[in-house]
Amino acid sequence: MNKRQTRIFAIASTAIASLVFLVLTVDSHRQFPKLTNSQNITDEVVRGQNVWHANNCINCHTILGEGAYYAPDLTKITQHRGAPYLTAFLKDPSQFYDEQRHRRLMPNPNLSDQEISDLIAFMDWVSHIDNQGWPPRPILVTGGSIPGTELSIAQQDQSPSSAEAGGQPPGARPVDSSNDPIALGQALFHEAVPTCAACHSVAPGVNLAGPSLANLAATAQKVIDSPEYKGRATTVEGFIHESIVEPSAYLHPGPMYSANGVSFMPPSYGKDLTEEQIDHLVAYLASFK
């Protein structure tokens, strides 16, 4: 091309690129109200955002993919865990994680009940933003994940054969009823013998020897409402309890989970765990919304 053709090409290319940019900008602004869920911003959501910033949560967590990567991304956290779990966790994170075993521990933010409620409202608003699939998957705290499974340290570091003083296995330890049942349920999830975490992931789409337990509460309700369900449970909690003590009452679809009408899940939990422990485990699993 000669100089004149080069100049025309450069001007035309710039004009076309500018036009495309303007069209995309106008289209983005047209969609912003719907994509950002802005119509649902309430005073509680605004207060929750202030709590998020005041406590520098983004120094450890990511939200919409932005922030630090020391702790999990919280973009969709309220869709993965319900308000009861998040409330109990924010009141005392140390009930859910052990610094020595998990190699990290969220500091207690010492939030009031109102601040916790506001923060959960803010995170719930964030979870309904149409982020068009970004981040592309839940960002888990791995610290050395098993290839293909993306298990967290909490799932990997369990030792189901370990016993407490006196020879009593972790799953049979007496529990302190003064503690939060969801926190106790989470501990039991990793400490029962056999450990639940060895076969079940709590991350969406991560299926191990057993199906993922993410969104378990919603899944359980769908099963109960379906005509194929022949069990006795009428509530989500009842279904989870039944699945623990009578795993063959409902067989999760898929040849890797059962055979000849019998679930591969050990049927011994109903005998090895106390009713109180099962209730704690149910409380924890029912918080997976």
Span between termini: 63 Å
Q: What is the count of β-strands?
A: 4
The stretches of 5 or more residues where confidence is low (pLDDT under 50) are: 139-177
CATH class of the largest domain equals: Mainly Alpha
Keywords:
289 residues, mainly alpha, Cytochrome Bc1 Complex, Chain D, domain 2, two-stranded antiparallel ribbon, two-stranded antiparallel sheet, 12 helices, globular, electron transfer activity
Could you walk me through the main structural features you see in this protein, from its secondary elements to its overall organization?
This is Nitric oxide reductase NorC subunit apoprotein. Keywords: Electron transport, Heme, Iron, Metal-binding, Transport. GO terms for molecular function: electron transfer activity; heme binding; metal ion binding. It comes from Pusillimonas noertemannii. The protein has helices at about 5-35, 45-55, 75-80, 85-90, 100, 115-125, 155, 180-190, 215-225, 235-245, 270, 275-285, and strands at about 60-65, 65, 260, 260-265. The chain is an all-alpha fold and about 290 residues long. A hairpin with a 2-residue loop joins strand 3 (about 260) and strand 4. Helix 4 packs across helix 6. It starts with a helix and ends with a helix.
